[in-house]
């Protein structure tokens, strides 16, 4: 059995970091701009690693790509947040271990994530039935508009 090397990232961690940087950006970013933003978050990565990750996310339909000089600039696709939320629900499953998995998930939340989740749960509780928990016109400080996984996006 192979052991995971201590410096190796958890599967999906780099993709999540890249998506986070792009969601926080005011518009599409080139691979070089994405690399700089990731470095600002403490992730020192080779340009090729960032470019490959962006291309893979585009291939999965999670990023939109536009021409930028001789290369491309990337921005989250409109359906990216919903797609990731669907994957999370799929991983959670319907089985008997659901509560155990959720408890481990909640135990691993950062204080900011916990505050965001509590805010989203409160909004869902107060939302009119049939709205899917999303508030029209409203937005939370985190940029998420509701537990349905939609995110307010900045100007592109």
From TrEMBL:
One of its GO terms (molecular function) is DNA binding. Keywords: DNA-binding, Transcription, Transcription regulation. Residues 126-156 are annotated as: Disordered. It comes from the Bacteria. GO terms for biological process: negative regulation of DNA-templated transcription. Gene3D superfamilies: Winged helix-like DNA-binding domain superfamily/Winged helix DNA-binding domain (1.10.10.10). It holds the Pfam family Penicillinase_R. Residues 145-156 have a biased composition (Gly residues). InterPro entries: BlaI_family, WH-like_DNA-bd_sf, WH_DNA-bd_sf. Belongs to the BlaI transcriptional regulatory family. This is Putative transcriptional regulator. The lineage of its organism: Bacteria, Bacillati, Actinomycetota, Actinomycetes, Frankiales.
